[in-house]
Structure formats: structure tokens, C-alpha cells
Specification:
Elements: H1 2-11, H2 13-30, H3 34-37, H4 51-62, E1 71-79, H5 85-99, E2 107-111, H6 120-123, E3 130-137, H7 144-156, E4 164-169, H8 170-205, H9 208-234, H10 244-271, H11 276-303, H12 311-331, H13 334-342, E5 352-356, E6 359-362, H14 370-381, H15 383-395, H16 410-413, H17 419-430, H18 433-436, H19 454-468, H20 494-501, H21 512-515, H22 518-537, H23 545-562, H24 570-595
Antiparallel strand pairs: 1-3, 1-4, 2-3, 5-6
Domain Membrane transport protein MMPL: 46-386
Transmembrane segments: 12-31, 178-205, 212-233, 245-263, 284-308, 320-348, 369-396
Keywords: Cell membrane, Membrane, Transmembrane, Transmembrane helix
């Protein structure tokens, strides 16, 4: 089959080369860029049943107003001395512009000391050197519109007062700097890869022409692959925008190997004084199957990534497989086509024997492969020791596997001179950074139950205490402690709620007609139900005499209310219940911290 392919390529060599060159040019100039149509936002690749995806869905469902802003960016207003009136006026004008119609589209709610003065303690640092303006965004931080907003903000930040600095940071600012760093890394990787491959080919072939053939083949394969993947992303296939860095390394790696195999075999056949056509057919006929098998094995391996749950990995395998397939096709067509055009001259300045124009054989050198002959001899004579030594060397890196640590520190991955990093460091120095970018835990009852009942609140109290005990957790804000302190949730503690149930002694309402109303009866039944639920949530409380007496008194009151004949006894029993409820509250205060 590959001999037939070689014959076809030789026959239409100029057409083959022209086709690939035109295709590469079209892809380079007309295909959509991966950065424009693919995804940088990794959250878009998360499985729908992942914790973060489910939490985001719950927030959007039950807190639509709070989750209206999809992402945010921070404007850090900083003066190393102290923020003066000129600085405040400048920050105010910037805040007004962000809220005006002239601001770019995509901006949501603005949180600043000017729009929310009550937040001044959280938006201005204690040393009065740093101010934070929180800008909500209506799209993902990785969206192009978010980048456009940051560009507009930079254009707006001009003529600042002396000593004032303004930094753009937060989620969107970091993503913009991360994207720029990745793009720079891709460019650097591409340049370094091309240089290394070029040097390697020059060392191997010692011929500029022979070195250019693989570079041309690989370059065309790279351009075509990027174009095809760009069209795939435009059609709706999830492709990570930074796949470029993998494509460069993979295509240049395997493409160089494929071209080396074909060129080396072609050179060997020329040594046998075959014509260039016969040499190409023989070379591709023998090495084509080997190269194809290598590519197919790699494609199958990469396709195995499609079973991953994380969609970025899931889609990366097939995307890279497409690149490998294109590289294989270019290697078995472009390389033979160029070889058939140049013939033995492709290895210039190596000497050739040219008895006839169609016979171009490269003169073999006796000492040229002395080193590799020695390597082959040693390996075949001592296969087991050589294999053990090589395996041992390959295992050395695995000794450090236990030191591998996962990191969620995006800041450490960015250049330290990036604007978002400098701004974030200012926040860290002058604010409690945990309050600026907290982690959010979403609780939901799958059965649609009421999360405000006593049992759930008791579990929430335990969960809050557990979270506070974790290393690195400074404070936990919840319905039980809205500002992160226990004092802020005092009204929700069981002891204080029991005190709230105590009737007002000074009411002096002893009129039996009022006491036996349906509303009064329902109120006491509610109190009894509450105390019963309290006992279920805090079993130790049922051992308290005051608790049992409270339940007993409530039963008596309800029975009495249901019997009009004993209405006059209610006032006395109410006074008794008041004392018992106070004792129950005291017991909760003493016992809850230790036993709840």
C-alpha cells in the first residue's frame, strides 16, 4: 500500500506540495484562532455532577440576585502614605464612571465606599492606605468582554494624583495576566522548539536542505492542525484555548521522528545505487507501515483520554489525535514529494555518485556511524545489564513522586511583576484576604425540607465549629454567625430563643375571655412543639428538670385552655411557666457549648 502511495506522490509531487502549502496558508489566514473560539475558562469543562458545578447551579436557582454577577475584578486604590482627599475624589470619579452609561458593557454591581458607605470598614484598610472597589462582571472572567472591560479601565486610569497607584486585580485581572503569560509561553515554546529541532537536524544530517524538509513538513502540519481545531471549536466542540502549547511539542516531536525515519530509509536505499524513484518507493514501502503503526498507537492512546470525567482532559485527547493524524499524512506525502524533487541533492553538501541523472547515490562513509555501531554492539552483547541500567535511570525521577503536591495558588503561577499580582499583594498586606475572596459552601436539603428547623440549625452549628477548627480557616460566616463571630448569631441560639418565648409578665392580661382564644391556644401549642423539637436536637436537655416541667406545664395549660371551666387557673400557671422557661434557658447557656 505504501509503495503505491509513494508512486502516487512521486507522480504528482508538485501538486502534492502545492496542495499542502495552499491548505496551510488558508488555515493560517482564514481559520478562527483557538484563543477566539475555544475555552480558557476551565469551569466550563467541569462535570455537571461536580461539587462546584452543583453549587453554582444552586446559587443561581435560589439566590438569583446575589449570583447575578458571574465574576468580578478588583480595583485597588493605593497610596503608601495615606489616602488623602484628592485620592478619594479620584476614586469617586472612577466609581461613577464604572456605573455610568459610558462604561463598557458587561459591568454589573459596583461595591465601593461611595455606593455602600456601610461597607467602609471592609473596603478601606485599617491603615487608610488602600481602598478596594469591587466590580461585578456579567460574564466569565475568561470571556473576551471581561478583557475588553479591563482594557477600557486602563484607558480611563489617567492623570492620577501624586503618590496614588491603581491596580486591576481579582478574578478577571488574574485571568487576563494568566492568559498573557500562557500566550507568551506558547510563543517561547514554539521558538525554542524550532531552534532545538533545527539544531538537531543539522547535527544529524549536516545538510541545510535535508534539515529544511522535516521543518517544512512539521510547520505545514502545525498550521493545518491549528486551523482544523479552530474550525472544530467554532462548530461547538469544547477545546481548551491553550492546547497550542501541547500541539507544538507533540507535532514537532513525533513529526521529527516520522521525517527522520523516512529520510534515513531513503538515504539507505540511495546507498544501494537505486534511482531516486525506486529508493523512495522502497523506503516508504518499508518504513510507512512502521510510522503509521506508531501514529495509530499514539492516536489510540490519546483517544483513551476521552473517558475522563474532566472535559478539558476528555476533549484534549481527541484534539491531539487529530493533530497526530494530520502530521502522519503530511509526513508520508510532503517528505517523499520533496525528496523526489531534490533526489540525492537533498543531502548536499554530502558527495554523490551521479553516473546518470536518474541515479543519485550518496557516498557512504566508513567512520560515520562508528559511535552507533559501538552502541549497537554493546547492547546486543549485554542486553540484560544494559536494560537494567536504563530502567534504573528511568526510575530515579519516581523517587520524588511522594513530594508531589497539588496547588490551587494561581498567584504563584503568574509573573510576580504582573499587575494583578502586585495588586493582590497590596490587598494581602493591608486587608484580611480571606474576606476578599472567601470559599463558599452551599447547603441544600434534597428533600426540600426547611433548613431553619432546630435539628438542621444544630447540625449547622456543629459544621460551623468543625470548619473553624480547620487549619488556615480564619472565620466562618453563616446564618448562625453572619459576620463570622459568635456574638452576631446570639439571637439564633436556642437559649435566647427560649427566653423569647417567655410571656411578658407585666402585661397583666388575666381576662379569661382573652386567654382562651384560638390564637392563644395555637401559640402555646407552637411553644410546646418547639420545645419538643429542641429536646430531639439536644437529647441531654430532656434530663433537665426545668425542661420537663416546662413541657408538663404547657400540657396543663393547653388542656386548661381547651376546657373553659378552668380558664381562671391559667394566669397562675403562666407565671410558673415563666420561671421554668428561664431555668431552661439558663441550662442551655451552661450546657450547649459543652454538649451540643
Amino acid at each position: 500500500m505504501f509503495k503505491a502511495i509513494a508512486g502516487w506522490v512521486i507522480k504528482f509531487k508538485y501538486l502534492v506540495v502545492s496542495f499542502w502549502v495552499i491548505l496551510a496558508a488558508l488555515m493560517a489566514f482564514t481559520a478562527p484562532s483557538l484563543q477566539e473560539v475555544s475555552k480558557l475558562d476551565q469551569s466550563g469543562f467541569m462535570p455537571a455532577d461536580s461539587d462546584s458545578a452543583k453549587a453554582s447551579a444552586l446559587l443561581k436557582q435560589y439566590f438569583p440576585n446575589e449570583s447575578a454577577s458571574v465574576s468580578s475584578l478588583y480595583l485597588i486604590i493605593y497610596n503608601h502614605s495615606t489616602l488623602n482627599q484628592n485620592d478619594m475624589d479620584y476614586a469617586h470619579s472612577l466609581s461613577l464612571w464604572l456605573s455610568s452609561e459610558s462604561a463598557p458593557a458587561g459591568i454589573g454591581e459596583i461595591n465601593s465606599v461611595f455606593s455602600h458607605p456601610q461597607l467602609s470598614s471592609r473596603l478601606i484598610s485599617p491603615d487608610n492606605t488602600t481602598m478596594l472597589i469591587d466590580v461585578g462582571l456579567l460574564q466569565s472572567a475568561q470571556d473576551q468582554q471581561s478583557e475588553n472591560i479591563i482594557t477600557s479601565i486602563h484607558a480611563q486610569i489617567t492623570n492620577m494624583p501624586d503618590g496614588l497607584e491603581v491596580f486591576v486585580s481579582g478574578e478577571a485581572g488574574m485571568m487576563k495576566d494568566l492568559y498573557a503569560a500562557l500566550a507568551e509561553s506558547i510563543d517561547l515554546t514554539t521558538i525554542v522548539t524550532i531552534i532545538l529541532v533545527s539544531v538537531l537536524l543539522l547535527i544529524i544530517y549536516r545538510s541545510p536542505v535535508a534539515s529544511l524538509v522535516p521543518l517544512v513538513t512539521i510547520g505545514i502540519a502545525y498550521l493545518v492542525s491549528r486551523g482544523v481545531l479552530g474550525y472544530m471549536a467554532e462548530a461547538g466542540v469544547n477545546i481548551w484555548s491553550q492546547l497550542d502549547v501541547f500541539i507544538v511539542v507533540l507535532i514537532f516531536g513525533v513529526g521529527t521522528d516520522y521525517c527522520l525515519f523516512i529520510m534515513s530509509r531513503f538515504r539507505e536505499e540511495l546507498h544501494k545505487n537505486q534511482t531516486r524513484w525506486e529508493a523512495l518507493k522502497t523506503a516508504l514501502g518499508r518504513i510507512g507501515a512502521v510510522v503509521s503503526a506508531s501514529a495509530i498507537a499514539l492516536i489510540v492512546g490519546l483517544m483513551g483520554m476521552s473517558i475522563a470525567r474532566y472535559q478539558m482532559i476528555q476533549t484534549m485527547g481527541p484534539s491531539l489525535s487529530v493533530s497526530i493524524a494530520i502530521t502522519l499524512l503530511s509526513a508520508i506525502t510532503i517528505t517523499p514529494a520533496l525528496a523526489s524533487i531534490f533526489g540525492g541533492k537533498i543531502f548536499w553538501p554530502s558527495k554523490t555518485n551521479a553516473t546518470r541523472p536518474e541515479k543519485l547515490a550518496v557516498s557512504p562513509s566508513k567512520d560515520k556511524f562508528r559511535f552507533w555501531n559501538w552502541v549497537g554492539t554493546i547492547t546486543t552483547k549485554h542486553p540484560l545489564p544494559i536494560a537494567l541500567v536504563i530502567i534504573g535511570l528511568l526510575l530515579i525521577p519516581y523517587t520524588q513522586l511522594s513530594h508531589q503536591r497539588l496547588s490551587f495558588d494561581t498567584i504563584s503561577e503568574l509573573p510576580q511583576d504582573a499587575e494583578s499580582v502586585i495588586g493582590f499583594n497590596k490587598l494581602t498586606e493591608h486587608f484580611n484576604i480571606g474576606e476578599m475572596m472567601p470559599a463558599t459552601l452551599v447547603l441544600a436539603d434534597e428533600n426540600g425540607g426547611n433548613l431553619s428547623n432546630i435539628a438542621i440549625l444544630a447540625e449547622l452549628a456543629d459544621l460551623t465549629a468543625s470548619l473553624e477548627s480547620l487549619k488556615g480557616v480564619d472565620a466562618v460566616q453563616s446564618v448562625l454567625q453572619p459576620d463570622g463571630t459568635a456574638a452576631s448569631g446570639a439571637a439564633l441560639r436556642a437559649a435566647n430563643q427560649v427566653l423569647g418565648l417567655i410571656p411578658v409578665e407585666s402585661s397583666g392580661n388575666t381576662n379569661p375571655v382573652n386567654l382562651v382564644s384560638d390564637q392563644t391556644l395555637a401559640g402555646f401549642e407552637f411553644i410546646r412543639t418547639y420545645l419538643q423539637e429542641l429536646g430531639q436536637s439536644f437529647p441531654w436537655l430532656t434530663e433537665e428538670t426545668s425542661y420537663r416541667d416546662s413541657i408538663s406545664s404547657l400540657d396543663n395549660i393547653i388542656d386548661t385552655l381547651q376546657d373553659i371551666r378552668y380558664a381562671a387557673q391559667i394566669d397562675t400557671q403562666l407565671n410558673t411557666l415563666t420561671g421554668q422557661l428561664r431555668q431552661t434557658a439558663d441550662a442551655l447557656r451552661l450546657g450547649y457549648p459543652a454538649q451540643a
